[in-house]
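Need tokens for this chain, all 551 residues.
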Amino acid sequence: MNSVLRHPAKLGILFSVLLFSLFWQLGSWGVTESSEARYAEIAREMLETDNWLLPQYLQILHFDKPLMTYWLTAAGLKIFGNNAFGVRFFLQIAYLLQILLVFKITRELFENKTLATYAAIIYCGMPLVLVSIRNLTTDAYLNSFTLLAILCYILYYKHAQKPWLYLFFIALGLTVFTKGPFGLLVPLLSIYPIQRLLIGQKDSTALKIKSIHIYLGILLSIIIGGWWFFYLLLSSPEFYNFFIIEQLVNRVSNAQAMKRSEPFWYYLVLLPLFILPMCSLFIGSLIHNLKQKPGEIKWLIVMTILVPLLLFSTSSSKLILYILPISPFIAIISAHYLYKLNPLQVKRHFIYIFSIYSLITIAIIVLCFNLIPQIDYHASYQQYILVILLFLYIIYINYKLKNHKQKILLLFLVTPIFIIPFSSDVMKKMELNINSLTPISNFIKSKRMENQHIIVWNRAVNSISFELQKQVFSLKFEHYSLFRNTRFQHDLNWKKYLIDVNHKNELPYLKTLQASPSVLITRDRIPEEFMWLIKPYKQKRKFGKWTLYYK
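Here are the structure tokens for all 551 residues:
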């Protein structure tokens, strides 16, 4: 793969193909429930109200996450309009930035351009990373700032230049401003193994910089990462309990509060699945390096992969993207292992990796011909062309190339260049299966009902609010998504849009809404005592698990 870096034309072609793959039909499927739709709706309301400090959705203030993700999403909506493309645009930019940062971090750590190329390509094709940029959460942005902080520390340590030190602390502050104090975990744990790796490359002058710069850097991190939290704490002492107890302590010790309780082994089982094509390299690297006497690579594995994995596993609240910050180091140590392998060992790994991608190709072909039971997918002619190109690409790698390391690296590009654009079309045609409610929104628009009151039974449906650009009326019965934190509200306007049907004094208002031009959307079965809600609606339309009632 060195030849690509030595020829700007080849590098340009590869980059252009990657860009095309990332942005092909990026906005063709609607925002998905619940996380992506929630972030999108908060950003939309931020633009609508022009309030960039107090995020809200469904008219209720929402302080569960810092502002960075909302700001970036709102910027995308401002540039590209109120659509899913605008929601996801900066995630793709973050991914491209991450690839560059992984390359530069590896090159600075090992002073080896070829090894850095290996790491960047392995990272580029990692399923866990690609999942993070196709559905909006905070994690992809956190990963970008984490990598930026690590690179700045490496450059500071190698060159003893104060600007890199301050940039390191700025990046640390940005991780906190993206996802709170948890964002500091991986960059801080990486410091010791980085020093171990670089000790032979320098004369140890970097750490002799006056301590005043360290203190100023820490202060800078606190200001950048914490100013919004301090602003809210000054406005109300209630925020202390909210941030410290509910958002910090409960996320670690009380997953039921977050509805994310998973067993201890959750990540140990899922991680291999989300790095499946490069799993053999990663496991091989773990076995090889952990069997060695204490060394620099071993410390890198322990501090940036195993320790974070253990800490995340002990936390009671778990989602697969929480461990995204360890993915760059999985790529780096896998690349280091691949670089050191002899030809016979490489060939064995190639057989495994080629088999995985061959099975994926077969699965895509079967899906294209609509041969998978219970999945009704009809491929377009562009998809058939893409599958043919993928098949030819796999054949070319296997029969035309001789270098097995090059074969492995080119196989890792299958996921971002072929599978990502293919999956975009699949998600477009199977929106209801992936919790995108765009078909419902489109039907409402086609019937010219978007100006009517949209009433939703027992669910917070942010995607419909986002796509219709209006507030919906949510009927709270028992679903946890409608148990909202309203203690920070300065008025009662939110009560117009969140109606508790368990309180009889709120039913007259509901009946008034129902009597006006309106539609009713439900996913859950409506109890007998509330069946009167359906009676005014003479027509209904099924959308998968959802039902739309209209007049």
